[in-house]
Design brief:
880 residues; alpha+beta; Immunoglobulin-like; Jelly Rolls; nine-stranded antiparallel beta sheet; eight-stranded antiparallel beta sheet; 12 helices; 52 strands; 36% strand; globular
Length: 880
């Protein structure tokens, strides 16, 4: 097996030497694109928007692969084509593409005429290959990057890096890792690499072959989750050693591949210095980092699981970015010009808007693995209400199917005797139920035998072949008839949609017509599409909410949120969830969460261990300022009260905080849907020109107002927070004190406090404390105004649970603060209105300062305003 791997490596090493004739021979302008004829092959440049162009290259421009990402019908932009002795220009209003006639290389200019991205000459690779006996091509494109450029994206990875410039990543879908082939640059552009299979980002082609050097440490037995439920696995460390040499000093990119479908630990040392060290019950098979090396020979040691077959790849870091896909029929990528918001807006216009989540999805979501019976679930639900702990959605994880077999879409009546009554009882408590439904079905179950007889499985697996439309339709028919219609369940947890075990590799899909490698990364999109479209058809009056473990570009249009999978609970894991979430969010997919407290937990000691309690509370503070607030845990009773009075009280504080912020959060959710906004915002989105802000790995904006700097280390009482350059400064949310931007400040950060600042000019609506999202009509809202700069906010409201908003049934109330005039204007209500609209209400205006308007509790009202939908101007007095 190891010999085969080396052959493959040698083959890959040949790729960069294979270049094809790229001299321009001529061009033709068509209605929707420009076709450039090269010495070999054709280059198609298709303007998609005023700031967006799609680039496709092939020897013959044909494709049997469906169009999955760019599905929206949009008006094509006007574009002009001009020619000079040296090049051809395609110009739109916000972007120009220049084709160099000698090299065929492309460069891109923004509306100011400044080059922001350029292909490397001879950086376009197109090499014949095959997969499962079918012809394909290995495609690669290299780009020049600027020395001071910062890059983000490629999805959710567990390597701990936020700025990924120069970093190698292998883009595959596995538990805890979500591959999105999209990057965002601090230089004002985004790039989507349009390939549905494995992609290597910045591939490192130099190889260190490692040899086994014995075993290390004691063997341990752990309980782990698998596609067959909980299993015991005995693990023994193995040690692998190798040598390599580099010719010059510099920074080097390192990629470790453990050689199995999942890793158990990543540990790598170079010359005795630890470069990588991270472990979890499950990890992706590859990880990467950057390391400074001196010219000469180096010793490398990898400690892994003894059955691993690890290989280390390396390359010198240069100012270039490279994408390579080993299975393709054409080279295909899309460039977006503009700042991050402009890029994401264009991306969503072309790939599909993100539907509005139901308002109850933005309250607290309670999970555990798992409620074992109907009584168990209802008893815990009642306890939330009895203890006055807010909660909107409770989740039933796997194995409720019991004796009927894995995901048989049937409740075992010995465990859940009356699911319809259970859901009804939850609804009477103003709670909703989410149910785990897999894409895998036990072949021995009644349902599985039906799927098997119809040949609806991916061959030699128990995963449904969603690429086959008949299989997808039958899956939905079964889902709808067996679960949706009988029980009135509210939300759906589509687990393991990678699919787990990377099970498309080496298998033909869609009735044996397509190599799985061609579609290796898009299985989760097919699953969520099937469920979303089915729900819209069969339950048209209920907003869809899908939680799933994997995703791909365009999946935002299917009302799906993702979470980070089966992660651990330690501090380093917490840090890595934050960088993972920010790099996922910047790819244009807005809904993300994680298992607060970690999925794999310390066992029974967790209920009394003060150190775990500290970690849990820091996880939960971060969850409060994540798109979804959610707790989960393996073999754990995750309810707050089980950890003692202190944990329960602190958790209640942040539950109350979340619910008071719902008017703000729901308005930001509407901004996602209507204006293509982003809720969890890496600092590149608002401070792209502030180098120090771009270097902050653990800070981000939560909507337009909040700068969040979660504590991600043990034993902290004070936390350094960098306040980005912002002329009008920042307010400490907890004290009301104002600070100038562009400085690092020591911030009080006791266990009760997440460091939190508010941008000057922000307007934040805060509601009352509630037990569930629709407990009280928002007749009285506290409106906090953070003066110092002009500011705007749009308060969005609708019915919260249906799609009437698509027909205009909503209300938008604009607020605008004018710093010069010291006036707050509450504008005329917009929208058609809706059932439950509050026509007459009270806005309690609070001018925030060090004596008023800080912290979670209600502030002292400075001005009460009766609002009936018409324009009102409120003057701030000088002494307020």
């Amino acid at each position: 097996m190891k010999k085969m791997k080396q052959v493959t490596i040698l083959f890959v090493l040949l790729i960069p030497t294979f270049c094809i004739g790229q001299v321009v021979k001529g061009y033709k302008k068509q209605n929707d694109k420009v076709v450039i004829t090269l010495e070999k092959g054709e280059l198609h440049l298709s303007p998609l928007a005023e700031n967006t162009v799609r680039v496709q290259y092939a020897l013959e421009m044909k494709s049997q692969i469906p169009e999955l990402v760019f599905t929206s019908k949009v008006n094509l932009p006007d574009f002009k084509v001009s020619e000079s002795n040296s090049g051809i220009e395609i110009a739109m209003s916000k972007m120009t593409v220049l084709v160099d006639k000698k090299s065929g290389a492309l460069s891109y200019r923004n509306h100011e005429g400044k080059v922001f991205l350029s292909e490397k000459p001879e950086g376009r690779i197109f090499k014949p290959s095959s997969v499962q006996g079918e012809p394909c091509h290995i495609v690669e494109q290299g780009f020049n990057t600027l020395p001071d450029e910062y890059l983000y994206g490629t999805g959710q990875f567990q390597d701990g890096h936020l700025n990924i410039k120069g970093l190698p990543r292998r883009l595959t879908q596995v538990n805890t890792q979500i591959a999105i082939p999209f990057i965002m640059s601090s230089k004002g552009y985004g790039l989507l690499w349009h390939n549905y299979g494995l992609t290597d980002f910045n591939p490192a082609d130099n190889v260190v072959n490692l040899n086994p050097a014995g075993i290390s440490g004691e063997s341990i037995t752990v309980a782990v989750t698998t596609t067959n439920g909980t299993q015991k696995e005995t693990r023994q460390d193995g040690v692998f050693t190798g040598k390599f040499a580099v010719k010059e000093n510099g920074e080097y990119a390192i990629l470790l591949d453990v050689g199995q479908k999942m890793a158990r630990k990543w540990q790598l040392t170079i010359d005795g210095k630890e470069v990588i060290n991270f472990k979890n019950h499950w990890l992706p098979p590859t990880t990467s980092t950057l390391a400074k090396l001196t010219a000469g020979k180096h010793d490398i040691v990898v400690t892994a699981e003894k059955n691993d077959l690890p290989v280390v790849y390396y390359r010198k870091v240069t100012n270039e970015t490279v994408f390579r896909s080993p299975v393709a029929n054409k080279l295909d990528y899309v460039v977006f010009a503009g700042n991050s918001d402009e890029v994401i807006s264009s991306y969503r216009n072309l790939t599909g808007k993100a539907p509005l989540m139901p308002i109850w999805a933005l309250g607290y979501i309670h999970c555990r693995e798992r409620f074992t019976t109907q009584d168990d679930l209802l008893e815990n639900a009642k306890a939330f209400r009895d203890k006055k702990l807010p909660m909107d959605l409770i989740v039933q994880d796997w194995q409720y199917w019991g004796k009927y077999g894995w995901n048989s879409m049937k409740f075992d009546e010995d465990l859940f005797p009356d699911p319809a009554a259970m859901v009804k009882e939850l609804h009477q408590m103003n709670m909703r139920l989410m149910l785990s439904v897999w894409s895998k079905i036990d072949k021995e179950s009644v349902l599985g035998k039906e799927f098997n007889n119809k040949k609806y499985y991916i061959p030699n697996t128990e995963w449904v072949d969603f690429f086959n439309p008949d299989a997808a339709n039958y899956y939905w028919k079964s889902f709808s008839e067996k679960l949706l219609k009988p029980y009135e369940i509210d939300a759906w947890w589509q687990d393991a949609t990678e699919p787990e075990n990377d099970d498309l590799v080496g298998r033909k899909i869609n009735n044996g017509t397509t190599p799985g490698e061609q579609m290796r990364n898009v299985y989760p999109m097919y699953v969520t599409k099937t469920v979303y479209e089915g729900l819209r058809k069969d339950a048209p009056d209920k907003r869809v909410f899908i939680l799933t473990r994997s995703g791909f570009s365009g999946q935002q249009r299917y009302a799906s949120a993702v979470w980070t999978g089966d992660v651990g609970n330690d501090w380093e894991t917490l840090r890595r969830q934050l960088t993972a979430g920010l790099n996922y969010s910047i790819t244009g997919l807005p809904w993300w969460t994680f298992d607060a407290g970690g999925f794999f937990r310390p066992g029974k000691s967790q209920y009394t261990d003060a150190k775990f309690h500290e970690r849990f509370l820091r996880w939960f503070q971060l969850a409060t300022f994540s798109p979804l607030q959610r707790v989960h845990g393996y073999e754990t009773n995750t309810e707050f009260w089980r950890y003692g009075e202190k944990v329960e009280a602190e958790s209640l504080k942040y539950l109350n905080f979340r619910y008071r912020l719902l008017p703000y959060i729901y308005s930001q959710a509407a901004d996602i849907t209507f204006k293509n906004g982003t809720l969890m915002r890496p600092l590149i989105m608002d401070f792209a020109n502030d180098i120090k802000a771009l270097e902050q790995k653990y800070e981000y904006m939560f909507g337009s107002a909040f700068l969040v700097a979660p504590v991600v280390s043990e034993g902290v009482e004070n936390w350094k927070v960098y306040l980005p350059e912002n002329q009008s400064g920042w307010f400490n949310f907890w004290t009301g004190k104002q600070y100038k931007g562009g400085q690092t400040v020591q911030t009080a950060a006791s266990l009760s406090t997440i460091p939190l600042y508010v941008k000057s000019g922000s307007i934040i609506p805060m509601g009352e404390k509630m037990q569930y999202t629709n407990e009280k009509p928002a007749e009285n809202l506290e409106i906090r105004v953070y003066t110092g700069a002009n500011g705007k906010f749009e308060l969005y409201e609708d019915e919260g649970t249906n799609y009437n908003y698509e027909k205009g049934a909503f209300s938008i109330i604009p607020f605008e603060w004018n710093e010069e005039k010291q006036t707050l204007t509450i504008g005329k209500r917009k929208g058609k209105g809706f059932n439950g609209l509050i026509k007459n209400r009270l806005f309690n205006i609070v001018w925030v300062n060090e004596s008023n308007g800080f912290g979670i509790e209600n502030a002292k009202t400075n001005v009460s305003v009766k609002y009936n939908g018409n324009n009102i101007v409120v003057q701030k007095n000088k002494n307020e």
